[in-house]
């Protein structure tokens, strides 16, 4: 799946601009700056496919990338704090929620959680939205390289506790570091079984 061509298809700013839902897709959701775009680059092995940056609010559209012949990887704008005007952020949030609750071809949402921070209230909100929309989601822990192994377990326990309350949650989470390449092959394998 990841051996073939990966390409940017389009950036979408409104639901009526979505590509036809004629193929399965997985999306990457999470707080601003959690590492969504960087993870897509790590998965596809293309350093600058999705635009990443240290400024929260980098991704401002729903970006579709082809993965293999007939699937999409979807990079979403972040939620929570973003370095952009309030009105603009509200617009992305509405689009994000419309996408997450109304996309027939969405096979699974990956909800990214920073290994330093664990699950926050805004993550809970998104998880509840996914419950209501019956979209299965799986937690991907990011930036594991920033947390010592001895300190990870406490955070992972908090995250396990949080996802246990969500019927749409897939119980297993995946620990990753795009920086170090940790867990990327595991995530690729999971995606390959889905689409
Ligand atoms: P928005 O588009 O603003 O919502 O952010 P995003 O979730 O797409 O985050 P992005 O991929 O742009 O990454 C944010 C910052 O975190 C960048 O400076 C990345 O280099 C850094 N980053 C992402 N993944 C990792 C990781 O695994 N380890 C480390 N150390 N840094 C990472
Ligand atoms: Mg981004």
UniProtKB/TrEMBL annotation:
<keyword id="KW-0460">Magnesium</keyword>
<keyword id="KW-0479">Metal-binding</keyword>
<dbReference type="GO" id="GO:0005525">
    <property type="term" value="F:GTP binding"/>
</dbReference>
<dbReference type="GO" id="GO:0005829">
    <property type="term" value="C:cytosol"/>
</dbReference>
<keyword id="KW-0131">Cell cycle</keyword>
<protein>
    <recommendedName>
        <fullName>Probable GTP-binding protein EngB</fullName>
    </recommendedName>
</protein>
<dbReference type="InterPro" id="IPR019987">
    <property type="entry name" value="GTP-bd_ribosome_bio_YsxC"/>
</dbReference>
<keyword id="KW-0547">Nucleotide-binding</keyword>
<keyword id="KW-0717">Septation</keyword>
<comment type="similarity">
    <text>Belongs to the TRAFAC class TrmE-Era-EngA-EngB-Septin-like GTPase superfamily. EngB GTPase family.</text>
</comment>
<dbReference type="Pfam" id="PF01926">
    <property type="entry name" value="MMR_HSR1"/>
</dbReference>
<dbReference type="InterPro" id="IPR006073">
    <property type="entry name" value="GTP-bd"/>
</dbReference>
<keyword id="KW-0342">GTP-binding</keyword>
<dbReference type="GO" id="GO:0046872">
    <property type="term" value="F:metal ion binding"/>
</dbReference>
<dbReference type="InterPro" id="IPR030393">
    <property type="entry name" value="G_ENGB_dom"/>
</dbReference>
<feature type="domain" description="EngB-type G">
    <location>
        <begin position="22"/>
        <end position="195"/>
    </location>
</feature>
<keyword id="KW-0132">Cell division</keyword>
<dbReference type="InterPro" id="IPR027417">
    <property type="entry name" value="P-loop_NTPase"/>
</dbReference>
<comment type="function">
    <text>Necessary for normal cell division and for the maintenance of normal septation.</text>
</comment>
<dbReference type="GO" id="GO:0000917">
    <property type="term" value="P:division septum assembly"/>
</dbReference>
